[in-house]
Design goal:
The structure holds two protein chains of two kinds. Chain A is an all-alpha fold. Chain A has one domain: MetI-like (MetI-like fold), CATH 1.10.3720. Chain A is built from 13 helices and no strands. Helices cover 76% and strands 0% of the residues of chain A. In chain A, helix 3 runs parallel beside helix 6 and helix 4 crosses helix 6. The longest helix of chain A has 32 residues. Chain B has one domain: MetI-like (MetI-like fold), CATH 1.10.3720. Helix content of chain B is 73%, strand content 0%. Chain B has 16 helices and no strands. Chain B starts with a helix and ends with a helix. The chains are: A mainly alpha, B mainly alpha. The interface between A and B is large, with 105 and 106 residues. Chain A: Its main location: membrane. Chain A: This is Maltose/maltodextrin transport system permease protein MalG. Chain A: It is found in: Cell membrane. Chain A: Part of the ABC transporter complex MalEFGK involved in maltose/maltodextrin import. Probably responsible for the translocation of the substrate across the membrane.
């Protein structure tokens, strides 16, 4: 078998596998463009013959998608800012030193990373209600998400800082920088990309967060899109084209971000999780 | 005062300061809730005592009540099935894909990256899509299975007690393929290629090479991926909320969903906390295994 033939065969199989894997996403878009009757046709059509683009405008208006997405954005940005502000310095120190305290700190952080949100939400909810934090529910959710996401961020960013040579920082200190100066003007700029990718990953997670928001935010005007989508799906719903349009509008920005930054996200994820 | 300031700016204080704030934050928002969870599990908590800290101490009564309920063991069994089946499915498919994309061909790394897409999608969106795909009368999965002749009548994935749990497992496998495949790909790419060349010269077939080189070299990675799978699977909540809500009649309920359901649907916070404590112990054990299998990497 010649080299080109082999390559083409592999490429064909790979495309087939990718198509199979991505079918749920395709089905979401196709369903969102179908009419109410085409949606329940047997056999189902795999191509929208008369795409109903107005479904999107209708759902956007009637389900207040803009408001839900805005709340998701507020929550996600708040969590990212908090996590980045607190986690970056922590990751730097954990990367710079090597002693038993650092090992203990890392171990604690790894343990906190694995606590399931649906189990932690009970004590967090009761505690927050006792301290009156539930009066500002979006802030409460931001705090809870930040605590959940920070360990992951620290682990990812720590591996970035480890790849910044310590000699550069020492040279900066010899040249008369203070520790703060060396950190801000030498180390941080070199680690910028890793921090950015990790922040984007945290943003994507927080943008889709559900458990905390569902449990802590009662007012519909403050709920994020995940809760909005959930309340849209009743047990006996038949509005699947509208629901899929909602889902498509929700996931669209994330998919765009993912496609734009795919290479960096993949390398960022893999370096943090295992290396 | 002046020495303290200069230490913060230029000495040990700088490091301590950088670590103290995040650690304090994590202690307040993860450590304390963890302890509070244990405290609540030995207290009597109802809607009236929710706001006060001094609640009646009841010892292990909540644990006794929990295990005397008829649904407890079926739900724990569901949790075990969910975990084992999800991990097995994710791992086998993920490993298969990782091995396939390990072959070098144009576009391989780009196409492989596409498989990460489920990792970044909101869980509720994944749940909504699979809820519709698995729909009984009009679901596309039933249609496909019918047309290739695997089933003759429609399966009511979400409402049939025999299939409800499997509906969530299918969605969870799809969701988990991504990280299994990516992490296993990283492990595969770190195996030196000349090992295979040497084995091939010695006349080892493809299966022998896989069994004697790939699997042993991948042992640490596989351990890490499987224990990460366990951790992620025990965190899975959104799919249950979006596909079956634990129903019908708890047929697809698992411990992590049940804990939430007891607290926030039935307002039985003490029982919710009790299950949380038990499950958190399990997750902690899994994460110790995970940390041990990646210890070399963590220490750098």
């Amino acid at each position: 078998m010649s080299e080109t033939l082999r390559n083409r065969l592999f490429l064909a199989i790979a495309l087939l596998l990718a198509a199979l894997y991505l079918f749920p996403l395709y089905w979401m878009v196709v369903t969102s463009l179908k009419t109410g009757s085409a949606m329940f046709a047997t056999p189902p059509s795999f191509w929208p013959s008369e795409p109903q683009w107005q479904t999107y405008a209708y759902v956007w208006e009637s389900r207040a998608v803009g408001r839900y997405l805005w709340n998701s954005l507020v929550i996600a940005l708040g969590a990212v800012v908090l996590v980045t502000a607190l986690g970056t310095g922590c990751a730097y120190v954990l990367a710079r030193y090597r002693n038993v305290w650092i090992d203990i700190g890392l171990f604690l952080i790894l343990m906190l990373q694995v606590l399931p949100a649906s189990l932690m939400v009970t004590p967090i909810f009761v505690g927050f209600s006792q301290f009156g934090l539930l009066a500002t529910p979006r802030l409460a959710v931001i705090l809870a998400i930040a605590a959940k996401a920070m360990p992951f961020f620290v682990v990812l960013v720590r591996s970035t800082f480890m790849s910044v040579p310590a000699e550069l920082e020492e040279a900066g200190l010899v040249d008369g920088n203070s520790r703060v100066g060396a950190f801000l003007f030498i180390v941080l700029p070199l680690a910028r990309n890793g921090i950015l990718v990790s922040a984007i990953l945290i943003f994507m997670q927080a943008f889709g967060e559900f458990v905390y928001s569902k449990s802590m935010i009662q007012a519909a005007e403050l709920q994020p899109a995940s809760v909005g989508l959930n309340s849209f799906m009743g047990p006996n719903t038949n509005e699947w084209n509208n629901i899929m349009a909602f889902a498509a509008m929700y996931v669209g920005p994330i998919l765009a971000l993912f496609v734009l930054l795919q290479r960096r996200i993949v390398s960022g994820l893999t370096s943090g999780a295992l290396k | 005062m002046k020495t303290m300031f200069s230490s913060l700016r230029d000495g040990r204080g700088f490091d301590v300061g950088l670590v103290a704030f995040p650690m304090g934050f994590l202690f307040l928002l993860s450590g304390l809730p963890l302890l509070y969870n244990v405290v609540m599990s030995v207290q009597e908590v109802d809607m009236f005592s929710l706001g006060s800290f001094a609640r009646p101490f009841v010892g292990l009564k909540n644990y006794a009540t929990l295990f005397s309920q008829p649904e407890t063991w079926p739900i724990l069994k569901n949790t075990a099935i969910f975990v084992v089946a999800s991990i097995a499915g994710q791992f086998l498919i993920g490993f298969g894909l990782a091995l396939f994309f390990w072959n070098e061909f144009p576009g391989a790394s780009w196409l492989r990256g596409l498989f990460l897409v489920s990792w970044v999608m909101p869980g509720l969106v994944v749940g909504a899509i699979w809820n519709w795909i698995l729909s009984g009368d009009f679901g596309v999965l039933n249609y496909v299975l019918r047309s290739v002749g695997i089933i003759s009548g429609n399966i009511f994935w979400r409402s049939d007690p025999n299939f409800a749990l499997w509906a969530v497992i299918i969605a969870n496998i799809w969701l988990g393929i991504s990280f299994n495949m990516i992490l296993l790909s990283v492990g595969l790419s770190s195996i030196p290629k000349d090992l295979y060349e040497a084995a091939e010269l010695d006349g080892a077939g493809a299966w022998a090479r896989f069994r004697t080189i790939t699997l042993p070299m991948m042992r640490a990675t596989i351990g890490a991926v499987v224990s990460l799978g366990l951790i992620f699977t025990l965190q899975q909540f959104d799919l249950f909320a979006a596909i079956t809500s634990g129903g019908p009649n708890n047929a697809s309920n698992v411990a992590q969903y049940w804990a939430w359901d007891l607290s926030f649907r039935q307002y039985d916070f003490a029982q919710g906390a009790t299950i949380s404590v038990i499950m958190i112990v399990f997750v902690m054990i899994a994460s110790v295994i995970y940390v041990r299998s990646t210890r070399q990497e963590v220490r750098g």
